UniProtKB/TrEMBL annotation:
Protein name per UniProt: ABC transporter ATP-binding protein
PANTHER family: ABC TRANSPORTER, ATP-BINDING PROTEIN
Similarity comment: Belongs to the ABC transporter superfamily.
InterPro entries registered for this protein in UniProt: AAA+_ATPase, ABC_transporter-like_ATP-bd, ABC_transporter-like_CS, P-loop_NTPase
ABC transporter domain location: 4-234
Alphabetized UniProt keyword annotations: ATP-binding, Nucleotide-binding, Transport
Domain of life assignment: Bacteria
PROSITE patterns: ABC_TRANSPORTER_1 (PS00211), ABC_TRANSPORTER_2 (PS50893)
GO MF annotations, alphabetized: ATP binding
Signal peptide: none
Organism in which the protein naturally occurs: Pedobacter montanisoli
């Protein structure tokens, strides 16, 4: 079992933005969802964990080793799929993986070849191994990104907003791949898509403005909202009234009709009880 421990981590950029504000958490094998709106600090946290930038304060341990003191230790065990994964033009999938594997220290040529072929099979790109990666579709590029992140058999992989721009079928395929990988190692999935976290992650954190707002198992956290989430259809001109008088979770259109979802311990007049879900928890947490 692998353990990533983050203790009191903080990071302020030169422009004064505190992108990570005293975050502590522990992450074990399996898929961990890091959920937050744009600008919450997810990428900042990811970049700090992978050693691309230094924290101002706090500690990060991987399997007991302080990675600030021994940054090579985590680099050898880690694979990263950044948000903007660039590829060189005119290089085939196989050759690019070969090049990246050498950089990662997979020195034995026979082992390297086997690993690359195995990974291309795993991400379902073996038929495209001689194609130039820059000609791949968005989904194929992301799956290639997973293959490169898995070179060198890492114990932890970090993927930053990986399904942005993928069509539903590719998103499913990509998510299935992640979930398969997450059985044996730590996979940290940074995203603003609640649905991806709900479908894939057994543990999660919600962050906003650099701070950790919630942390734990999605189902345990959702249970706290049992018998407290209510919905009703309203007219647009009533919205302000409701916003002022109720603890709002969200308002959204269902078949063109505005619906409002609120949190209350007793049934508010005209509202019906609904089963709480991760989206309710997410919006409720962000609104608090
Ligand atoms: N290198 C930087 N220098 C200064 N400010 C930065 C830098 N990188 C990020 N920020 C700011 O830090 C805050 C957190 O940004 P970050 O990219 O970590 O958030 P995020 O949750 O990953 O957002 P997104 O989902 O939009 O990628 C934002 O206000 C952002 O503008």
């Amino acid at each position: 079992m692998n353990t990533l421990t983050i203790k009191n981590l903080s990071k302020t950029y030169r422009n004064g933005i505190k992108a990570i504000n005293n975050i502590s958490m522990e992450i074990n094998n399996g898929m961990f969802g890091l959920l937050g709106p744009n600008g919450a600090g997810k990428s900042s946290l990811m970049r700090t964990i992978v050693g691309l930038q230094q924290a101002d304060e706090g500690e990060i341990y991987f399997n007991g080793t302080d990675i600030r003191k021994d940054s090579d230790f985590i680099k050898k065990q880690l694979g990263f799929l950044p948000q903007d994964f660039g590829v060189y033009p005119k290089v085939s999938a196989y050759d690019l993986l070969n090049h990246l594997a050498i950089l990662k220290g997979v020195n034995d040529a026979v082992m390297r070849k086997k690993q690359i072929i195995d990974l291309l099979e795993k991400v379902n790109l073996i038929a495209h191994k001689n194609k130039e990666v820059y000609t791949f579709s968005g989904g194929m590029k992301q799956r290639f990104g997973v293959a490169q992140a898995l070179l060198g058999n890492p114990q932890i992989i970090i993927v930053d907003e990986p399904t942005a721009g993928l069509d539903p079928e590719e998103r499913n395929r990509f998510n299935n791949l992640l979930s398969e990988i997450g059985e044996d190692i730590i996979v940290i999935l940074s995203t603003h898509l609640v649905e991806d976290v709900r479908n894939l992650c057994s543990k999660m954190a919600i962050i906003k403005n650099g701070s950790l707002l919630a942390y734990g198992s999605p189902s345990d956290m959702i249970k706290q909202l049992d018998h407290k989430v209510w919905i009703r259809k309203i007219e647009r001109n009533e919205l302000n009234d409701y916003l002022q008088n109720y603890q709002i979770i969200s308002n959204h259109l269902i078949e063109k009709q505005l619906h409002i979802t609120v949190l209350a311990s007793q049934q508010p007049e005209g509202f019906s009880l609904i089963e709480p879900n991760l989206e309710h928890l997410y919006f409720h947490t962000l609104n608090q």
